[in-house]
Input
Amino acid sequence: MQISITTKSLQEWSGAVLLVGVLEEELQNQLKQIGLDCDHEIEQKLKINNFNAKREETTTLQLFSEKNEKLILVGLGTKKDLSLNYLRKAIANAIRGCISFNGSLGIFIPWEELNSAVTAEEIAIAARLSLYKDETYRSKPEPRSLPTKIQLIGISKETNYSEINVSSVCEGVELARELVNAPANHLTPSKLADIATNITQGSKLDLKILDKEACIELGMGAYIAVSQGSDLDPKFIHLTFRPQGEIKKRIAIIGKGLTFDSGGYNLKVGAAQIDLMKFDMGGSAAVLGAAKAISKIEPNSIEVHFIVASCENMINGSAIHPGDIVKASNGMTIEINNTDAEGRLTLADALVYACKLKPDALVDLATLTGACVIALGDEMAGLWSNNDQLAKKLKNSADTVGEGLWRMPLQKTYREGLKSLLADIKNTGPRAGGSITAALFLEEFIDKSIPWAHIDIAGTVWSEKDKGLNAAGATGYGVRSLVNWICKLNEE
Ligand code: BES
Ligand code: MG
Ligand code: ZN
Output
């Protein structure tokens, strides 16, 4: 669905549902603006609904005017406390709460900042993503009426708003959500490769899919070891976006792509939520979602590589045993003391592969550790980086789009926990600081001269309930930050 802006004022706009953000100090004034001032009945209703325009307050009124049928009032609190972060969540929650639309939706927010393209686009993205619901697997989807169109009302005509940016980012996030929600019997490594192939069709993206033999040829012993316990073949996916004209920067993003993680012989038991481990390809979903968005936005002068080493972590007779020693494509030998720390094994070979492309920056996203969920919960991903500038830029992008991101330390002294008796390194350190040793493990496989960042999205990939922009289930976390970061590289 396209979301547009209009210079029409609140009084001029008419449609099915009008959503108005109301400032506490402006409540009476704004009601007047909407034309509700002398309507005693409405005032009564607001009183009954206890609506004072404070934060977290929302009320819906049925109107019988000729212009609009329904009015949603969203409390914004006081003007001085207003932030984009609060706004996008409040608007998303209000739209999701309004179950029936039968026409257009207009959104009016009394905030001058909305005349900046970034802010207007962010609100538009929030509005659209709030309507997302995955009905793919229901035989009879619940009937739902969506708005026929959405407009941001009262935006200055100077605002440089881009509908393409909004729809591309949303399509990217929606794809990522769809992929993460997809169960492991529907989304296999081959299917993921097919989807990657589809994204390249009719776009400027180049496609390369390496099969098992090609990966063995490249010496990817760590990645192949994880895949060997499954009846399904691994698929190594590499998409490239090459802009026309001069290339100023080359970057690579890698996503963990485990379409299922049983844990292997260190099987996930008890509270480990094995049934949720279809989401263990959330990193790859973010990468492919970003690829889709970037292929539509077509930013200038940035070459982007999108890389996924996809497979399943399963337990057939050929599966790795705990204690196996394998060799990664940089020549390092790894003792697999825990088969459930499989993501880092697949990423190891993907990182080596990506470094050979000599990128100016390298970012990986992975549902890597339960420890990260314990540390940061489901609203904050962890960020580790060997480069302060890169970390700052990623954090900046995450802040702009409202995805929680928190920098964590690459505590070098913990590297000791990965020492192996027999091999160069083992894949699992002590329980304490488990996300940090995971990051330190990854660092062993990069070219140290390349700015690198690792984002652990184990907590943020999934939402237990409807919350802000997220519907319960897959969040599509990462797409919005990545796209923002990539597009801004241009401005440097
Ligand atoms: N995919 C999991 C991480 C995970 C756990 C993501 C819970 C989301 C929720 C990963 O492959 C894993 O199993 N990690 C282990 C590592 C451990 C064996 C060192 C973990 O976190 O328990
Ligand atoms: Mg695991
Ligand atoms: Zn995993």
Notes: The CA atoms of residues 175 and 340 lie 27 Å apart. The longest strand covers residues 249-261. Residues 258, 261, 280, 342-343 surround zinc ion (ligand 3) (CB under 6 Å).
